[in-house]
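Please, structure for the following, as tokens.
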Amino acid sequence: MKNIKDLRPNGFDLQSLDEELASMTLIRALPAQEYSSFTLSLLLKDKLDKAAVHQAFVTEDIHCCRRAVDIPNTSSTFYTTSKVPKTSKSQVTCSWCNKLGHEKAQYNRKDRDRK
């Protein structure tokens, strides 16, 4: 215990520990895949106090918002250029007669049955 206590910086108290734990909790709560470089840059800082981590989060949020505005909407581009696989007719089940191979919209017997 003496060696552990000797490794603490001067003036390190319970409030300092709480702030350090809060900072580490914020960092660990980030999704690993999306924020791996951001997390690494935080962990490489010399001073990892709550204020520095909070400021880094605010700065990263501002950068993410700017990138989102600068990048055109790729979801609509992806949707129009990507091919969606069609289901084969043998996999389609009619909701009117429960048979495979056609859809209710294509089923002419439905109209005759109603009449």
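Residues 76-84 have pLDDT under 50 and may be disordered. The two ends are 89 Å apart (CA to CA).
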